[in-house]
Write a structure and sequence with these properties.
Length: about 450
């Protein structure tokens, strides 16, 4: 059997470690206490040589099993391959432990010892098998091996004895074996999951990039390597021996006393379950840096603790400040450009107005040029007539009327241009003849 693959698929290292740690108490009960009770009960019915040999074997087995468990425990975290290679040997020790009880019960049955004595031995064996649920169930395969090797020989011997009491006890033991096997499997799954969750928590706790700290009361209980690095401590041990006051300036940026404010936030986390806030810390060198702290109240191994997640946000704040400055500069630049565009628009509007005014003046000049020429010609004609003393009153009056008509035409032209730009001007219908005559 490939034990490494078997346990890799079903268990974690913590479960195997738990089995080995529980071996000491369980082995003492099954290899020392129970055999001594059995020797006392059978002292007058079994040869002393057999009892002494079995008792000595159990004692030596106890010493070997405990020594082996301690040896494997030293390598469980440093050399897991060696620990896996020792599992078959551990299983062999379990099998040898149960051999003592199989020999005793069958010897008692085959030699027809008193039924009451066999009943006591059977009860003691069932009790030991049941007790393995608390010491070996962390690995279901180990529990099942011990439980079955203890129970099956007992059940077979009780049915073989054929006594009324032993047969009834054999039936009870059979049902007990089936029920406890199922119970052991369920409890093994639950224990395995608890070890898995513990290992998962420890992995996250140790490997996360954020600094993580466990606080008990007002003292540090545990931390990860990121916490040691962020405060530039020499080791985890030296950090845990330090005090909260050593890692904060006297006052926080808001002017509050650091110690009082931290105690307030810790009390809030314990009351409400969680508290998040920004904090100004300082390293061993005295350099100050800003962090984001989340305090969470947790219960770990029966202890009420505060789980502190600390993230250095100095770089984040610097980037936010730069972004703020960039935004402010951009806003100023936008205002400058908007003002430039507004001035350019005003200049363009003014230029457009000048252009429109020039076009209007050009049109007025075009409209006035012919009447002015006519007035100039008429005036020149009148002047020549006066110089030649050739004044005809009717002709003179006619020329004056022409000048008046031309000036009225000029006046109407000005009115037409002025009316052209009126916004409240109403549309009117006109015929082509009216338009020609008005011109």
């Amino acid at each position: 059997m490939n034990f490494k693959n078997l346990f890799d698929r079903n268990y974690n290292h913590g479960a195997i470690e738990g089995m080995l740690q529980g071996a000491s108490t369980g082995v003492f009960a099954s290899s020392i206490v129970a055999p001594l009770i059995i020797v006392y009960l059978l002292f007058d019915h079994v040869p002393l040589v057999l009892l002494s040999s079995l008792l000595l074997f159990q004692f030596l087995l106890y010493v070997v099993r405990v020594s082996h468990a301690k040896k494997v425990l030293k390598f469980i975290k440093t050399d897991i391959n060696y620990a896996y290679s020792q599992l078959p040997l551990a299983f062999s020790f379990i099998a040898f432990t149960t051999l003592f009880y199989g020999i005793i019960i069958w010897y008692s049955v085959l030699n027809a010892l008193p039924e009451l004595l066999i009943f006591i031995l059977a009860t003691l064996t069932i009790a030991l098998a049941s007790a393995s649920l608390s010491t070996l169930v962390v690995l279901f395969h180990t529990f099942l091996l011990f439980f079955l090797l203890m129970t099956l020989p007992l059940i077979a011997a009780l049915f073989y004895y054929t006594g009324e009491m032993t047969t009834s006890l054999g039936v009870i033991a059979l049902f007990h074996m089936l029920i406890y096997s199922v119970t052991g499997y369920k409890q093994s799954v639950a224990v395995k999951n608890s070890f898995f969750l513990k290992d998962t928590f420890e992995t996250i706790f140790n490997e996360t990039a954020d600094a993580v700290l466990l606080i008990k009361g007002s003292r540090f209980k545990d931390c990860n390597n990121s916490m040691v690095n962020i405060f530039e401590h020499d080791s985890k041990e030296s950090f845990l021996k330090s005090n909260i006051r050593e890692f904060s300036p006297k006052l926080q940026p808001d002017g509050k006393n650091s110690v009082k404010k931290m105690l307030t936030m810790m009390a809030k986390a314990r009351k409400e379950g969680k508290a998040s806030f920004e904090w100004l810390h300082k390293k061993v060198s005295g350099e100050e840096f800003l962090v984001d702290i989340t305090l969470t109240a947790i219960t770990l191994e029966g202890e009420e603790l505060l789980h502190a997640d600390i993230r250095d946000i100095t770089r984040k704040k610097e980037l936010e400040e730069k972004l703020k400055n960039y935004t402010k500069d951009l806003e100023e630049q936008v205002k400058i450009e908007v003002e430039k565009n507004r001035i350019q628009d005003q200049q363009l509007q003014q230029q457009s107005r000048f252009a429109q005014m020039g076009e209007m003046i050009s049109m007025i000049a075009h409209q006035w040029r012919q009447p002015l020429s006519a007035i100039s010609v008429t005036a020149s004609s009148l002047k020549i007539n006066i110089l030649m003393n050739d004044i005809d009153n009717s002709k003179f009056e006619k020329n004056v009327d022409l000048v008046l008509d031309y000036t009225q035409h000029l006046s109407r032209t000005i009115d037409d241009f002025r009316d052209f730009f009126k916004e409240d001007k109403a549309l009117q219908s006109a015929t082509f003849d009216e338009m020609v005559q008005s011109k």
